[in-house]
């Protein structure tokens, strides 16, 4: 078996430059000067891209100023800031003492190498459960607002909207004054379905106008958007067009938190402000893909992919590997006689190439199948990588090294494979969907990602 080394790819990890407690943004609200990389990481990382390069198109601009209005101090705002200050202090203390502290008995405590810093993550999660409240704006009517797709390819968008709209979420604020964050309940999938069918044109202006007009109404009716210029507001979109919402008016959305499946750092995704949302193709009878996992010593396929030839990454993958190798099995859509998920369960390394956009449901499908994900992308900001160390339980191959896939994977020792496969099983809980949501599951992890970015803002 060949012995090779392969460098860290061009994936962008937010924890390298998402700063918790950033330097002063301006006189109206601040980003604190404490590094998330020092809080949520226990080891150093080597990146192919420099921090400055990764920040240049998006997040870096955030720290150069804002048009936010000065917050008028009141009892609610004071109590909120005091609570956030206590949360930051508790996280610091957990990191300093390397201890787990909680106000309640817990069934699960994060431990192990899949976490950048399990003490920081645990304490942050505890503080979130204790303090984080989200107000859902009531304006707007379905189908464009307050509902989204619950099944199929874009379902994490609809599942999140339905969770917070159900009235059962522990994070739902009963009054906007008690909220730490504000949810803009627009569904990009539904807008595209109802405004772009039949497909007369694909101009993004229709989509942009709906969301911009909605925010204009909110900003005139309530004080909350204007006091922070949207820094404590967020929306959730799993559609490929989600990032396009903000391109027509960058100033309006400069501080807005976008929770996106299409988390492409080369196309304006700002890891310091935006959140990477996992893409899951939820079937109509369940809340996730089937789990047809086999034991690691009963997996006869080295690498596997099946799907459409969408985008330049897959075109390159098909060029070198489609139907050419028994060990690296790359196929177009499978015949009905073959079970896609059963094949994943028989595979050691599941190939997860980007399609038209960077995200792919195969990343989560691999995790469900107990198959080590092989991320083939150059600019994908992986979900929850503020707290999860993907380098421990996945393999990353740059697009330029697609011809070397077999050499790279055969160069991984059995000991190293078994280690990563075991960690894939450990990380599964963070990608499971439950309704109602449960601590540390996928929906809680999305809330936690937004919580971290809210924790990063202080009104003054």
TrEMBL record:
Family according to the record: Belongs to the glycosyltransferase 47 family.
Chief location: Golgi
Membrane-related topology note: Single-pass type II membrane protein
Source organism, top-level taxon: Eukaryota
Name by which UniProt lists this protein: Exostosin GT47 domain-containing protein
Ribosomal protein found in the keyword field: no
InterPro entries membership: Exostosin, Exostosin_GT47
Presence of keyword Cytoplasm: no
Species name: Escallonia herrerae
Chain ranges of the Exostosin GT47 domain: 128-410
